[in-house]
Structures are given as C-alpha cells and as structure tokens.
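Hi everyone,

Forwarding the result from last night's run.
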Amino acid sequence: MSTAPPLPRSPRAPIDRLPRPLRRLIGRLLHLHFRLSRGMTLGVRGAVLNEAGEVLLVRHTYTPGWHLPGGGVEPGETLAEALAKELREEANVLLAGPATLHGLFLNCESSRRDHVAVFVIRDFAPPAPKRPDREIAEARFFALSALPDGTTPGTRRRLVEIAGGEPVDGRW
C-alpha cells in the first residue's frame, strides 16, 4: 500500500493564532458545554499505520497539536461506525478491514467524564490527500521515530504502547 505524497504545509491553524489564555478559555467553554449537554462523553481515535510503519496524524483548526484522527461517538452510533465516519471525515481514510481495539482511556485532559476508545488500523484503502477544511488544517503520515513537534503527549503514549509494546495506561 503506497501513501500519497504529503500536501504542502498549511498555515497555522486559526486557534494557534490566538493568545494561549484565550485558547484555554475556548477549550474550557467547549468542555463545559459538552459536560452540561452530554454528561459523560465518549470518543474514538484511530492509529492508522501504513506498510512503511508510519502513523497518520491530524492537526485541527480549533485546538493545537498533532493528534490521532477521531472524534465523538454520537447517540445511536456504534464505536465502529463512529471510527469509520471520523477517519473518512478527518483524513479521507476508508477502512478495508476490521479495526482492533487497543484500549479505552479516561481523558482527564478534557474533563473527568471524557473517555476515548483507541483502535489500531492496518487495513485501509490508500487515502486521497486530505485538503484543509474548517476542521482539519493538515493530515499526514509520519515515521514513528520522527513524530512532528507538537504531537500531543497522549498521542505519543498511545503510539509507544502500540508500536513499542509498553503496558497500556488507562489514562490518556
């Protein structure tokens, strides 16, 4: 399976242009909204690994850093449906086989009510290049040994567990 050539580096995400205190305030307001409207939240993320041993990461327009692609599970949606939808929307990845559950994590970075199911994906159709949009500034494959600056600590921990065989930590 070959990977598409990377897109030219896009400009900084709009959220990155805001002062750090304002970014934190926006994040806290979003989490307050989710806490009041949903109670416990559940999300999915996918560690998409190609044959070259590279992992797919995305950079959002509304929060800093590089992340595994993923998003929230909507009411009436299974984890598998949410994962397939989020991979398609955030990175143009279409699953060609089953994803393997790596673990379920409590994400206290967001709130004490946020849980994230992480899946490992090795069987997928080669994605078309993802064009930047209102949600995703950039989506690219990176060598596990050369993750970009700004890769979030939770993302790095999951990749060490997946690729390095480290014990799974239940906290994001």
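The first strand starts at residue 41 and ends at 48.

Cheers,
N.
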